[in-house]
Every structure is written in structure tokens, then in C-alpha cells.
């Protein structure tokens, strides 16, 4: 997860509007730092005001009790719609799904989460990618656990007349390795960063669609929408694996038409 500030939002807004790039929304971190915390109500409001004319859709990673209520209040005051996330993980010591699902249930019962203010929800973000770096895909325990979370969340929402899409957000290779996901998710939620593929930003979109073409075809076969839940390009930094990281390269990368796309913007 990345920490996003109002300054980063301002940069994103000016860059996207200047280049006339279509954009569905922005990924957003509610934390005060990578170690935790929760931004203040005023910080949330300032960040949302910095969106300017960008689509007022924000995707978050966690539904932490106390913080999520503050975020919902701020989003409501600024006409911002949220895509919620539950921090589900396969390893029990990292798994916040049980507590965050309880928070979600409370919010629904309190009419704080509704069809008109929440766009969708993912029950995990790259949990499969992290777990299966050290375990074999032949062990389907992790996949089945997350599918169970998805089914539980969706069943609860539908029972309360909440009809937003529910999904598992992960990288291309996870969807390839676990094709059963296509039948279970409401939308196919992919995180893909072409900057890690050893190419220049000008080739970023071509590489992105080349990487996802197999997943896109599989999604179409089951009648599911493909959602780019995380993408983008670094605007600064000196990681050797990334060939260029400037505001200009960050702007060039993200011309994606006709596919709902969340851009990850961070300092």
C-alpha cells in the first residue's frame, strides 16, 4: 500500500487533465504512514478537494473500525464515492478480514454503506501474490480461503439489498494460476504495473494489455468486466529495475481507454 497526499492528488489532477487521459478513480491510503495510523477528517477532506475535476471515485485497502467511519463522513461531504477493501490474507497472523468484515456488517446495519455511496468491495489485495511466492499453487488452501471470504461478504451484502460488485484484487499471474476465480468474482480485478517489465513508459500501455490479454479473454468468456484496480508509473525515484521515473513518464504511461482504471498515485 502507498501513502497518498493532497500534493500527489494535485499532481495527478494536473497531469491527467493536461493530457486528457480518461480515469475512473484513484487508489488511496488512509494511513498516516506505512506503519499505520489514520488520517484526520480534515486531511481526508483536503485530499478529496484536490481531486478537482477528476472522477470522484476513491479505492481504499482496509475497512478499519474507527478510521472507515471518518473516511465515509469525509467522502460524503465531498460527493466522493468509495471502493472499499477488506485486508484479507491467507496467513492468519496477517489476516484482518475477520475483524474488518464485522466492521462492514456494522456499517451496513447502520446504513453507512449503501448502493449510492459505495462502488464495490474487494476482500483482499494481492494476498495470493504474496502467499504463493513461498508456497506451491498446487496447494489450493489459500485460493479457497479467499473465495470463502468473497462468498461470505457477497452473501451478507445481498441479504441486505446491497448490490455492489465483490471481488478479489490480484496480479495477472494469480488469475492465471487460479482460473476458478473467474467464476466467483463479480468483476476481474487486476493490479498491473508495466514499469516492472523493463520497458519505457511510452510502451507501458502496450505491455499492460499484452500481459492481461489472456485474463481479458477469460473474463469475457464468463461475462465479467475487467477492472484495472491498480496501475500507474513512478514519477520519481532511482530503483534500477525501472527505466525512467519522472512526472513526464508517469503521465505518458496511463492512456487507457474503455477499461475502468484506478491509478495509484504516491509520493
Automatic annotation (TrEMBL):
Q: What's the stated role of this polypeptide? A: Glucanases play a role in cell expansion during growth, in cell-cell fusion during mating, and in spore release during sporulation. This enzyme may be involved in beta-glucan degradation. Active on laminarin and lichenan.
The superkingdom listed in its UniProt entry is Eukaryota
Q: Which N-terminal residues, if any, form the signal peptide? A: 1-18
Return the protein name: glucan endo-1,3-beta-D-glucosidase
Q: What is its main location?
A: membrane
Organism lineage reads as: Eukaryota, Sar, Stramenopiles, Oomycota, Saprolegniomycetes
Listed Gene3D superfamilies: Glycosidases (3.20.20.80)
Organism, scientific name:
Aphanomyces astaci
Q: From the Swiss-Prot or TrEMBL record, state where the protein is found.
A: Cell membrane
Give an example GO molecular function. glucan endo-1,3-beta-D-glucosidase activity
Entry EC number(s): 3.2.1.39
Alphabetically ordered keywords of this record: Carbohydrate metabolism, Cell membrane, Cell wall biogenesis/degradation, Glycoprotein, Hydrolase, Membrane, Polysaccharide degradation, Signal
A GO BP entry: cell wall organization
Amino acid at each position: 500500500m502507498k501513502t497518498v497526499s493532497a500534493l500527489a492528488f494535485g499532481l495527478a489532477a494536473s497531469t491527467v487533465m493536461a493530457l486528457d487521459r480518461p480515469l475512473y478513480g484513484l487508489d488511496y491510503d488512509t494511513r498516516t504512514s506505512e506503519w499505520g495510523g489514520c488520517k484526520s477528517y480534515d486531511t481526508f477532506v483536503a485530499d478529496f478537494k484536490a481531486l478537482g475535476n477528476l472522477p470522484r471515485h476513491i479505492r481504499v485497502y482496509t475497512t478499519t473500525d474507527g478510521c472507515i467511519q471518518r473516511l465515509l463522513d469525509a467522502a460524503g461531504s465531498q460527493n466522493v464515492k468509495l471502493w472499499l477493501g477488506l485486508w484479507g490474507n491467507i496467513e492468519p497472523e496477517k489476516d484482518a478480514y475477520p475483524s474488518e468484515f464485522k466492521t462492514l456488517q456494522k456499517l451496513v446495519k447502520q446504513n453507512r454503506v449503501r448502493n449510492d455511496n459505495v462502488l464495490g468491495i474487494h476482500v483482499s489485495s494481492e494476498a495470493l501474490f504474496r502467499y504463493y511466492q513461498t508456497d506451491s499453487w498446487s496447494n489450493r488452501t489459500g485460493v479457497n480461503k479467499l473465495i470463502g471470504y468473497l462468498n461470505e461478504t457477497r452473501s451478507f451484502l445481498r441479504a441486505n439489498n446491497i448490490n455492489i460488485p465483490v471481488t478479489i484484487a490480484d496480479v495477472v499471474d494469480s488469475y492465471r494460476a487460479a482460473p476458478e476465480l473467474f467464476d466467483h468474482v463479480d468483476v476481474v480485478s487486476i493490479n498491473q504495473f508495466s514499469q516492472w517489465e523493463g520497458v519505457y513508459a511510452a510502451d507501458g500501455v502496450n505491455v499492460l494489455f499484452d500481459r492481461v490479454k489472456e485474463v481479458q479473454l477469460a473474463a469475457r468468456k464468463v461475462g465479467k468486466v475487467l477492472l484495472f484496480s491498480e496501475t500507474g508509473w513512478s514519477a520519481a525515484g532511482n530503483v534500477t529495475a525501472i527505466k525512467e521515473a519522472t512526472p513526464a513518464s508517469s503521465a505518458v504511461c496511463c492512456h487507457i481507454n474503455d477499461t475502468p482504471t484506478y491509478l495509484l498515485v504516491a509520493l
